[in-house]
Design brief:
Elements lengths: L9 H83 L4
Length: 96
Amino acid sequence: MPWKPRHLSSAELELSKDNHALQMALLNLRQQLLSKQTYADEVLLHERLERIDELNATLEQSRRTLKRQTDVTSTSHFMLIFKHSRWDNTKSGDNP
């Protein structure tokens, strides 16, 4: 024989409504939190990528500066050796 559902008292009915409202509020808050976390992740990723680009640009600029300095130093050393070599040849009497 099936049981007849018992009628809820007004206090039980009120608690059931409150429980349902709190469950819906919790679901809404979880959705908001997930949305904010996703947004924060996107913002942080964007900032990280911008910082990486800035550091790569700085690194590339440093490499170009170092290459220019190395080229100038190499050229200076070559000229010094060439000049010294010609001076030694002139001094010893071996003019070309």
